Amino acid sequence: MDRGRGDAVDSLSGEEDIEKAIEREMAAAKENSTGINQEVATRRKPKKIHRQNSREGNVNVGGFVHKPRSWKNSRRSRNGYGRGLPKKGGAGGKGVWGKPGSELLEAIEDVNDPNFDSEYDSADIELKAVVPEVSSEELKKKIEPIILEFFESNDIQEVIQSVEEVVPSNCRDVFVQKAVEIALDHKPSHREQTSVLISDLYGYVLSESDIVKAFENLLADLNDLKLDIPDAPIVLGNFVARAIADDCIPPRFIVDVKEKCDDANFQEALIHADTLLSMEHGLVRLDNVWGVGGPLRPVQALTRQMSLLLQEFVSSGDVEEASRCLKELEVPHFHHELVYEAIVMALEANNESTEKAICRLLKAFDSRVLITRDQLERGFFRVFDDLIDIHKDVPLAYVILDRFIDLCRHEGFLTESIISRFPSRGRKRFVSEGDHFVTKDKQNKSHEY
């Protein structure tokens, strides 16, 4: 019985030892697992905290960053990693525009396109400049300031640069056409500049086909041009002849174009050009088809033209024709010469009708502002300064001039400065009828001796 009791005690102690062993093993396993977790935790990369500048309106209270409400829909990363840039370069997310520049590759990035290439390389792209097509009317609006500026500056290089930048290479004929149309409304000197411009641009920015096409279009529009410019066929014929003389278009141009249209104005322009080219030494004379510009003419030639103008007016009395001739001279700075020649002509004629005609002409020029008051005064002052020399050829010059001044003053176009500067001939009074050659001053000097 004692033995059985001892065996039971031994069995109980054995079970307790087994439970304690199991508990020790579990405690050891738990310690090992916590050690591993701690080791893994020490190896983990520390989390970055993205610091925000206080200028952005953030408030740091107790280590917590209060972000503004504008960040509610922000696409920036919130996990603390990275530099705060948009996800996928702005191409990710719902309702976004996509990566910048992707709209240009829309046709290429279509997955359903059989030519789609997932490994698209931007290095294989070849970019070409695409010039948008401009209508003829818009192009003419851009050309007009170029031509008008050329009339002022006469700078060929500036025109070449402007044409290369503004006018496409396939529309250069529009430039020639617009240049000639503008020149038709301007003076002969501007037409001469336009002819020189076409000749200088030929071979650089203009080709023969451009000039030929431009003149063909101008001849086709000649009826419309004549509505504003009555002498358009003659002027355009001069342009065609001058272009042929400058070797810009071939001489067969007249023959080739003459058969294309039977219009009267069309044929008149070509016949006039053919006449200029067929006359003796025509190619040489065409260099002055527009005449010599006013500032380029010698003074003697201008004086002669003004004298012929005055002689024609005295005989015809046509003020309109005289005004037109004066405008064609294009020398507003030299109009004082016309005033001078007109007064001298009145003094030499010693005719009341001539004086009235000259007075009427000067009054018409003054009322139309063809001659300014400054040029008018300068012409009269020149006559006053040369009156002593004029008196040698015209003994009654003082008397005639006095009468002419009164006539002009009565018409009301003389200024006060002209009237005040009118010279009066000093009279030498004789003591008696017998002292014909002894003046009063000489007689006083003889009494002193």
From TrEMBL:
Residues 29-96 are annotated as: Disordered. The keyword tRNA processing does not apply. Transmembrane segments: none annotated. SMART domains: MA3. Residues 43-52, 66-78 have a biased composition (Basic residues). Residues 138-259, 301-424 form the MI domain. InterPro entries: ARM-type_fold, Initiation_fac_eIF4g_MI, PDCD4. Residues 81-96 have a biased composition (Gly residues). It is found in: Cytoplasm. It comes from the Eukaryota. GO terms for cellular component: cytoplasm. Residues 31-40 have a biased composition (Polar residues). Keywords: Cytoplasm, Nucleus, Repeat. Belongs to the PDCD4 family. This is Programmed cell death protein 4. It comes from Hypothenemus hampei.
